[in-house]
Amino acid sequence: MPSVEIVTIGTELLLGTKLDSNSVHIGAALAEIGLDLYAKHSVGDNEDRLASTLSSALERCDGIITTGGLGPTVDDLTKEAIARALGVQLELHEPSLAALISRLAHSNRPLTENNRRQAVLPAGCVVLENPNGTAPGFIAFRADGRFVAAMPGVPREMRAMLSDSLVPWLRDHFSLRGGIVSRTLHTAGIPESEVDRRIEDLFRLQENPKIAVLAHGGLVDITLMAKVSDRSMAAQLLDPLEKIVRERIGVGIFGSDTDTLEGVIVCELAKRGLTLGFAESCTGGLLTEAIVRTPGASEVLRGSIIAYANDIKEAQLGVPRELLEAHGAVSAECAIAMARGALDKLHVNIAISVTGIAGPAGGTAEKPVGTVYIGIASRDHEAVAHYRFFLGSRSDIRSRSVLAALIILQDEILTMKPTEG
Amino acid sequence: MPSVEIVTIGTELLLGTKLDSNSVHIGAALAEIGLDLYAKHSVGDNEDRLASTLSSALERCDGIITTGGLGPTVDDLTKEAIARALGVQLELHEPSLAALISRLAHSNRPLTENNRRQAVLPAGCVVLENPNGTAPGFIAFRADGRFVAAMPGVPREMRAMLSDSLVPWLRDHFSLRGGIVSRTLHTAGIPESEVDRRIEDLFRLQENPKIAVLAHGGLVDITLMAKVSDRSMAAQLLDPLEKIVRERIGVGIFGSDTDTLEGVIVCELAKRGLTLGFAESCTGGLLTEAIVRTPGASEVLRGSIIAYANDIKEAQLGVPRELLEAHGAVSAECAIAMARGALDKLHVNIAISVTGIAGPAGGTAEKPVGTVYIGIASRDHEAVAHYRFFLGSRSDIRSRSVLAALIILQDEILTMKPTEG
Fold it and tell me: Which of A98, A253, B297, B383 has its CA 20 to 30 A from that of B319?
């Protein structure tokens, strides 16, 4: 089995101020084409250390993918180190120089010595074009065929070069027709342990395709992964398994792959011609924001009233003062009244309210931090749900409240008829 | 100069699904105490590859810091690899076993064989206690004194162990009294090029303390860094430089180090006894959310009206229909009317409105995507600002609008008298 390692280059990667997202992105691309990644390394801008890291990695694997150090100021360092590790010379690459000159002429800039150095590349290399920047990438070879593929460190430049040039080259070079093909089913409103329970036997039995369950931010994803020698065979393996999983989980699955809960909600509301509004207290705009950032939101969302202070709940949402005095702002009664107020003031088909104690202060024995009420009102239906989020910071409690509200909203939409409102 | 390398362990770090935040966190801690980090590596759960990575790193540096692979299921692998690389034996560490037994007894759980294995450690190691989990960390030594310090991979466990046990040990072991001490001044409302222009000469002249300017998300940070052999000498180097920078930049500096613009705004409003409300259109809750997530927000923020649809601007904010028809919702006139409406409906001292076209659709030749108006109203002052954010996605334009609104708000607060309202 062919294998590669990744080396990301730049002293800034070692100072604890920057996450190395490039190697994560490359790792995902390699997993997808079924190329084994044995290790990854980050080294500073130091030619000796870089050359030694490259040389020892070349003893362990078939090729190395590097990012960074190709910019006009430090390029000599990376290219020198790569040339040394491979035992090749650096030389002026005429086509790259010509391309650079024509590009600079286009924007009326002169060719500087720094620019010129960017066209100096290892002898015999394959050039990887960089449509988003001036430094080209390249794949250079050792006499025995092992290689170093060098890409720029700017994520936008690197990502385009990876998907458009390097991945196709790697597939071809290693004759990789297969890889890992995955499909993710997103569930909401079912605890991870319950998801596990329902598909536990599939877990145990299946080697290929495999199933992985991942809970994150209150949602649970079920990923089906097929390792195939030819990608066109993936559907044959994944389709029957997906069918079984869907039967076991049911309506808890709200979407797949790139779907989001907000996206599905906006789409379903639009399809049914329904409008939406919110009355938020402790979530303070976070729920509205979750919908607004979703494409298509303007078709369904009319507005929100964020009533952080009690008298705004009264004045803007029509929550009766007596109700607030009798039950408090964090109560089922207030949540219902807020939702009803939003339904009325915002002239929408569905209104959702959130009121709770996100902390760190404000909790009592009866209503501890994490107590949240979510109300829902439509023309012929009103309901309220009560939560106690025991763990987590103020920010966690607010995020969980938003997710709970979205799940309630999604449930409500699924039960509403298309012609209502 | 002593130096170390980091090795993070776990196949999941290579699959492109997980950012390695542990090594970033450790990198920052090492920079702070002035210990050189030469390189960092991630390797999968494979004993041979791990042992070989550790052995070759031990030839280059004085010590290695690892994270991951100490859990009850895979611990043998990491510990075996470390023991092999160092040439020491693994043996049962009685005090760790006793601590584990007493801990399990406390929560009424029996000692399993897996638990017992967690108390097997390299001979002669220093144990690093883990108050947040069951797997202890350790520092094990090669005959020549070079070491491997192993910590768990769970970030919460690792971070506590790093700051409470490993960093003090490293300081002591390498007699590090110095390090890099930095101070960051945050500016808002001044373009990066202008910040550069005003302090350019300091940049060039200064070797120690050094200055770095970093623009991020529309704000510009100025970081002053002093490399000192004794941390108590840092103020002597940083104080005079900070004074000069503050003179050059003036009121554009809104805070330092852990200060945030929202935090400073909430604090200044509370100090002056002023209340705040928003009327948001294209930002859809994002501006309100920025304030709500700030500690102390409930003292100053009363509420917001998110008027995404035009008739909500009319009904809830009192924007005249004729105004909307004559000028459109994205106009200076509408922004002022929205701010005035919020001031009135929410009974606040300062109201800010945002209306604009965040795209991707909705732009015209006259009002292209990126056109944003921000209005401000207080009892005796009204103003509007017009922006065209040319670059960036819908999400970028919305974030930039929020930042612009916060900067306007901060400017307004600075000019208001404490007793107003």
Answer: B297
